[in-house]
Design goal:
- It is a single chain.
- It is built from 12 helices and 15 strands.
- The protein has about 350 residues and is α/β, with parallel strands linked by helices.
- It folds into 2 domains: about 130 residues, Response regulator (Rossmann fold), CATH 3.40.50; about 190 residues, Methylesterase CheB, C-terminal domain (Rossmann fold), CATH 3.40.50.
- The strands form 3 sheets. Strands 8-10-7-6-13-14-15 form a 7-stranded parallel β-sheet, with helices on both faces. Strands 2-1-3-4-5 form a 5-stranded parallel β-sheet, sandwiched between helices. Strands 9-12-11 form a 3-stranded antiparallel β-sheet.
- The protein is elongated.
- Keywords: Chemotaxis, Cytoplasm, Hydrolase, Phosphoprotein.
- This is Protein-glutamate methylesterase/protein-glutamine glutaminase.
Length: about 350
């Protein structure tokens, strides 16, 4: 699609919302080739028009968004951006849509929709353009993740004595990241005893559900970060939506975090840079920074800071990234130790803290 005008199908059961979204995309240079009022129409229109991207409502009559995404991925794999309301139920359904192949999601505003969508139009347009560039051909847009409570198998069997003591791992990701984060944490051995902080660009109302999903798929104890939380080895915090996650202090293998509603950094909140930079300032035990798929440059400065503090750094490679923005910007700093495909990242993380065999 690079260099050409992206073509889109807009699916929503609300005529008003379809019009608002289509107008925003048209004004931004996206050619809306068709509109669908339910999932069944969306599947047929995708097959007919072969667009570069689909915006898909979660709840629609006749066929819902999940079923539509599943059929599209089976019949005519196409990048899909889900449009979800800010509710717990919609959060669960949205993650199910990601499981069956959707690339990412955008949260519909509450209140006066037309005014709010106008305010968020630049963000929506940027996400649509980013998702449109994702290659889902041949993979059905899916990244393998572990079954719930499955023991990690991609990393060698090991015991705690094989690793350096008290390591901290910070993972940053954005577009296409949820499935990638699940994949990495599902394969991370508990014996490595990491303190894990995850910064995924995601709005409030979704990060709690995201933490629950990863907790069910990982041997680590995973939860959404709360202000003042402390974690030790074997525990992981997911940055809460709409708050920066700062590492406040670190003592005796336990780190404490602080949530902040300071202005966005790199146009996002939470920002990966904030977490990585504050961690590098206070952690004096092994520190590992990982940048996964995502648009923009968030995390690049954080990777530089971790490297300067003596930490180890990894970035996801272009071939397995949904969007090779954040990993590329990180690699361009010259401070990334390893660039790896997603399936090799868990083992790559473990390798950074393995003790030398004498």
């Amino acid at each position: 699609m690079a260099g050409s005008t992206p073509r889109a199908v807009v699916a929503d059961d609300s005529h008003f919302m379809r019009s608002v979204i289509s107008d925003i995309l048209d004004e931004g240079g996206v050619d809306v080739v068709a509109e669908a009022k339910n999932g069944r129409e969306a599947v047929a229109l995708v097959d007919e028009h072969r667009p570069d991207v689909v915006t898909m409502d979660v709840e629609m009559p006749e066929m819902d968004g999940i079923s539509a995404v599943e059929q599209i991925m089976e019949q005519c794999p196409t990048p899909v951006l889900m449009l979800s309301a800010h509710t717990d139920e919609n959060a669960d359904v949205t993650f199910e849509a990601l499981d069956v192949g959707a690339v990412d999601f955008f949260t519909k505003p509450g209140g006066e929709v037309s005014m709010e969508m106008s305010r968020l139009k630049d963000q929506l347009l940027e996400m649509v353009l980013s998702v449109a560039d994702v290659d889902v051909s041949g993979t059905s847009g899916r990244t393998p993740t572990a079954s719930p409570n499955r023991s990690p198998t991609s990393t060698p069997e090991a015991v705690a004595d094989d690793y350096d003591a008290n390591p901290t791992l910070i993972i940053g990701s954005s577009t296409g990241g949820p499935k990638m984060v699940e994949s990495v944490l599902s394969e991370l051995p508990l014996a490595a005893d990491f303190r894990v902080l995850v910064v995924q660009h995601m709005p409030g109302g979704f990060t709690g559900r995201f933490a629950q999903r990863i907790d069910a798929r990982s041997d680590y104890d995973v939860r959404e970060a709360q202000d003042g939380d402390r974690i030790s080895g074997g525990e992981a915090l997911i940055a809460a939506g709409d708050y920066h996650l700062r590492v406040k202090n670190y003592r005796n293998g336990r780190l404490r975090v602080k949530l902040s509603d300071d202005p966005p950094v790199n146009s996002v909140r939470p920002a990966v840079d904030v977490t990585m930079e504050t961690a590098a300032d206070v952690i004096d035990d092994p520190l590992v920074g990982v940048i996964l798929t995502g648009m923009g440059n968030d995390g690049a400065a954080g990777i530089e800071r971790i490297k300067a503090a003596g930490g180890r750094t990894i970035a996801q490679d272009e071939a397995t990234s949904a969007v090779y923005g954040m990993p590329q910007r990180a690699a361009e700093t010259g401070c990334v130790d390893s660039i790896l495909p997603i399936e090799e990242i868990p083992a790559g993380i473990v390798e950074t803290i393995k003790r030398e065999v004498t």
